[in-house]
Write a structure and sequence with these properties.
Layout: H1 5-22, E1 24-25, H2 27-34, H3 38-50, E2 54-57, E3 60-63, H4 75-88, E4 96-99, H5 103-111, E5 118-121, E6 136-139, E7 143-145, E8 150-152, H6 154-161, E9 165-171, E10 174-176, E11 180-183, H7 186-197, E12 199-206, E13 218-221, E14 228-232, H8 237-244, E15 249-253
Helix pairs in contact: 2-3, 4-5, 6-7
């Protein structure tokens, strides 16, 4: 029988109390302390992360003591902004740039100080940013996918395939050393792959710690095609060491 809202809230509050008391705990440890199932704890942790009450790392989670009440400045959203800002430093004046539908990738355009750029994207949210009047912006066109506001299909793919860019900044759903870079969305995998293949200089992968070590549904590319991986300080150090052996330049932002 499904738990009541009151029961769920009481259990999640208990998780927060335990994390403040112990510092960090694994899913198994929380399930044992709460005398409930691992699957139940995982569902609660997903909700708590979305509310920025906790920070999930590879294998464990911890209480988010900072900025709990401001989603745009805390938790995953803050990390994605910091990763995007770091990626923005790789963009130079006069560059042409591929940006995919990832919010982390889009942040690189939000924070770049470069000008006279040509930005090519299938992310309709690009139009909502404060844009540089000295730069050019090209939306691929295609089938609009909501609520993500991504442009997909043959028109979007053909637009990308007919262009070249100096740099691509690609976000994803999962990064794994064996299975490569993956996405949850089939229609976007082909377009992301085309962006990578049509990039002539720098290929940048952006992914916060939650994506590191994960495998999603559809493969975009091998990890080795990228020049840079930009993630955050909470990514598993063991996995990051393995990635570095591939010749990737790995940048980990910090600041939470």
């Amino acid at each position: 029988m499904r738990s009541s809202v009151k029961t769920i809230n009481l259990r999640m509050n208990k998780i927060l109390d335990l994390l403040q008391e112990h510092g960090q705990l694994t899913t198994d440890e929380l399930a044992e302390l709460l005398t409930t199932s691992i699957s139940t704890v995982r569902r609660d942790l997903i909700t708590l992360e979305e509310k920025n009450e906790i920070i999930r790392k590879h294998g464990f989670c911890l209480y988010n003591f900072k900025n709990r009440d401001n989603f745009d400045e805390s938790g995953p959203e803050r990390l994605k902004a910091m990763i995007g800002a770091k990626a923005a430093e790789l963009i130079s004046n006069n560059d042409s740039v591929f940006i995919n539908t990832s919010s982390t990738s889009l942040n690189s355009i939000k924070y770049t100080k470069a000008t006279n750029l040509t930005i090519i994207s299938n992310n309709l949210k690009l139009a909502s940013l404060k844009l540089d009047p000295q730069s050019s912006y090209i939306l691929t066109g295609g089938e609009l996918r909501v609520p993500k506001e991504s442009l997909v299909g043959d028109i979007a793919f053909n637009t990308i395939n007919d262009m070249n860019a100096d740099i691509c900044i690609i976000g994803c759903s999962g990064v794994d050393i064996q299975h490569g870079v993956t996405t949850k969305i089939l229609n976007e995998a082909k377009i992301n792959k085309a962006m990578i293949e049509k990039t002539t200089k720098i290929k940048v992968l952006v992914a916060d710690h939650r994506k590191i070590g994960l495998i999603s549904n559809f493969k975009i590319s091998d990890l080795t095609v990228f020049d840079y991986l930009i993630t955050d300080e909470y990514a598993s150090s063991t996995i990051i060491k393995e990635y570095s052996k591939l010749g990737l330049k790995i940048i980990q932002v910090s600041g939470i």
